[in-house]
Design goal:
- This protein is an all-alpha fold.
- Helix content is 63%, strand content 0%.
- It has helices at 4-8, 16-28, 30-36, 39-49, 51-55, 59-67, 74-81, 86-98, 113-121.
- Helix 2 runs antiparallel to helix 3, helix 4 (39-49) packs across helix 7 (74-81) and helix 4 (39-49) crosses helix 8.
- The longest helix is centred in the first third of the chain and has 13 residues, at 16-28.
- The chain is globular and about 40 Å long.
- Bound molecules: fe (ii) ion.
Length: 126
């Protein structure tokens, strides 16, 4: 779900986290949106603080990192570390990057439908 913003606004590498968060908020809730939005920020954080992680970024991620603001400054990193969803955002980002392996065998999208439906069903409706 975290990269749905790429499908909704093609080419907006810097804004796809915000676009995706806005798109999933009503269906999947605030917490999912709060994790979708900062996955770009988490990439910038890891690029600044984890040289091993940064070295493993895909070619595409390295290219888009520039348009997303580049590695965080130390001031930005300290502010991000104070985010209540900091650890979860980093976990999502690491999973995102770990999945960027050409030819990796993964479950089809349909495999995740029951999980998405359970999360959606648990959200309060207005
Ligand atoms: Fe992304």
């Amino acid at each position: 779900m975290h990269d749905i913003g790429h499908l909704l606004v093609p080419g907006d590498d810097a804004g796809h986290g915000r676009t995706g968060a806005a798109a999933v908020r009503e269906l999947l809730g605030t917490r999912v949106a709060r994790l979708v939005e900062p996955h770009v920020v988490a990439k910038r954080y890891l690029a600044a603080t984890d040289s091993q992680h940064a070295a493993k970024l895909s070619a595409s991620s390295r290219r888009t990192l520039v348009s997303q603001g580049g590695p965080m400054t130390s001031t930005e990193a300290v502010a991000f570390e104070a985010d209540p969803e900091f650890a979860a955002a980093l976990a999502l980002r690491r999973a995102d990057d770990a999945g960027k392996v050409v030819g990796l065998a993964v479950a089809p999208l349909e495999f995740w439908r029951p999980v998405i439906e359970r999360v959606a069903a648990a959200q309060p409706r207005m």
